[in-house]
């Protein structure tokens, strides 16, 4: 068994102080760093980044926080960078997505060599993936569903994620169940804001 960890969108704009801050985002960055600081079980560790230039109606000045969002993770701004508390940076590849349209799934991205995540994982002989990062109910959700659809045995490690709308998280769990995605752990209770 060859297992990869996919670290989804642990970027400044998705953490406290960012333009689309998810409660508990910085804590997730810290927990993922701890997970990867010690001996960890992963053969391959990759990351994804939201990487917007002009993603059309994905950005809005009057966002609904479901299909439209405040501008975030714009290429060339500080908000697109990995969060400072993500101290692990030794990724085998980083997959950027969403330049000109919404792209919730890391499987829509490409790395610096033009490889897709599916290509990369397949060539690395990966058969299992664990998915962590931000946000549980959007980019983690979509990345995990696509991983399962591409035939990878897929687990979301909830303790290492943070959700935009924890009160509606059951919808995400249901979508994972239909897709054959496993979950482990539990969604952290975000710090009071
Ligand atoms: C995300 C909302 C908008 C995410 C990206 O990374 O989960 N959420 N764009």
From TrEMBL:
SUPFAM superfamilies: Isochorismatase-like hydrolases. The keyword Transmembrane helix does not apply. Pfam families: Isochorismatase (PF00857). It comes from the Bacteria. Pathway: Cofactor biosynthesis; nicotinate biosynthesis; nicotinate from nicotinamide: step 1/1. InterPro entries: Isochorismatase-like_dom, Isochorismatase-like_sf, Isochorismatase_Nicotinamidase. GO terms for molecular function: metal ion binding; nicotinamidase activity. One of its GO terms (biological process) is pyridine nucleotide biosynthetic process. Residues 3-183 form the Isochorismatase-like domain. Keywords: Hydrolase, Metal-binding, Pyridine nucleotide biosynthesis. Its EC number is 3.5.1.19. Belongs to the isochorismatase family. This is nicotinamidase. It comes from Microlunatus endophyticus. The lineage of its organism: Bacteria, Bacillati, Actinomycetota, Actinomycetes, Propionibacteriales.
């Amino acid at each position: 068994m060859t297992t990869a960890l996919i670290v989804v969108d642990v970027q400044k704009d998705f953490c406290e102080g960012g333009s689309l801050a998810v409660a508990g985002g910085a804590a997730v960055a810290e927990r993922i760093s701890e997970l990867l600081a010690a001996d960890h079980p992963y053969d391959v560790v990759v990351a994804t980044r939201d990487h917007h230039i002009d993603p059309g109606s994905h950005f809005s000045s009057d966002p609904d926080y479901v299909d439209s969002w405040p501008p975030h993770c714009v290429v060339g701004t500080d908000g697109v960078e990995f969060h400072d508390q993500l101290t692990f940076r030794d990724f085998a590849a980083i997959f950027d997505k969403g330049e000109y349209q919404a792209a919730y799934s890391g499987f829509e991205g490409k790395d610096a060599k033009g490889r897709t995540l599916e290509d990369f994982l397949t060539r690395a002989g990966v058969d299992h993936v664990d998915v962590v990062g931000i946000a549980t109910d959007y980019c983690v959700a979509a990345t995990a569903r696509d991983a399962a659809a591409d035939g990878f045995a897929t687990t979301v490690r909830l303790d290492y994620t943070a959700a935009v709308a924890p009160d509606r998280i059951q919808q995400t769990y249901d979508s994972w169940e239909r897709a054959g995605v496993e979950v482990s752990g539990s969604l952290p209770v975000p710090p009071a804001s």
